[in-house]
Design brief:
With about 190 residues, the protein is α/β, with parallel strands linked by helices. The chain has a single domain, classed as Rossmann fold, CATH 3.40.50. The chain has 7 helices and 7 strands. Strands 2-3-4-1-5-7-6 form a 7-stranded mixed β-sheet, sandwiched between helices. Strand 2 and strand 3 form a beta hairpin. Helix 1 crosses helix 6 and helix 2 packs parallel to helix 3. The longest helix is centred in the N-terminal third of the chain and has 12 residues.
Length: about 190
């Protein structure tokens, strides 16, 4: 069983904010495939369950995402290597995809929470570049909404991210997926 987690913050206040790219990518994947999320209190999130994979959007807010992930991982006995976490990264150029097999949180509080809750750094993560903020306050930057132009550019990623998720579900080698989707330039 594969688990694909999109990180973000719940509620209309955070819709289309930079910190919610994980939710946005998972929503686009679900929409393309006509999957419908259901709110499951026992998992503290919105979830879609298939026989081969689970899509999860934690509703615990970013900094507590690991609590939701842990509940799903423990219930379905999912190995960390079968978890793909999708999140934002302001240290990566805008729209660049960076898939890694494992690693530290890199200062991302959602990843940090997941690592603490499942007790492992050995899970794939797809970081999506936001570009460096112009202003000094990182929190304001990641919680701000995309401009209309940037949102349109961001949506152009969905075909790539949808294909990447499909390949992960089909159990393609992470190295193969990394070679295909990690690029030196943004779109």
């Amino acid at each position: 069983m594969k688990l694909i987690v999109g990180l973000g913050n719940p509620g209309l206040k955070y819709k289309n904010t930079r910190h919610n790219v994980g939710f946005m990518v998972l929503n686009a994947f679900a929409e393309q495939n006509n999957y419908k999320f259901k709110n499951k209190r026992e998992f503290k999130g919105e979830i879609y369950i298939d026989k081969n994979f689970i899509l999860l959007k934690p509703d615990t807010f970013m900094n507590l995402s690991g609590d939701s992930v842990r509940k799903v991982v423990n219930f379905y006995k999912i190995d960390p290597s079968d978890i793909l976490v999708i999140c934002d990264d302001f240290n990566i150029p805008f729209l660049k995809l960076r898939l890694r097999m494992k690693g530290s949180s890199g200062g991302h509080n959602g990843l940090k929470s997941i690592i603490q809750n499942i007790g492992s750094e050995d899970f794939p993560r797809l970081r999506i570049g936001l570009g460096e903020p112009d202003e000094n306050d990182i929190v304001d930057y990641v919680l701000s909404k995309f401009s209309k132009a940037d949102l349109d550019k961001f949506k152009s990623l969905y075909s790539k991210t949808n294909d990447l998720i499909d390949e992960f579900i089909l159990d393609r080698s992470i190295d193969l997926i990394m070679n295909r989707y990690n690029t030196n330039e943004s779109l």
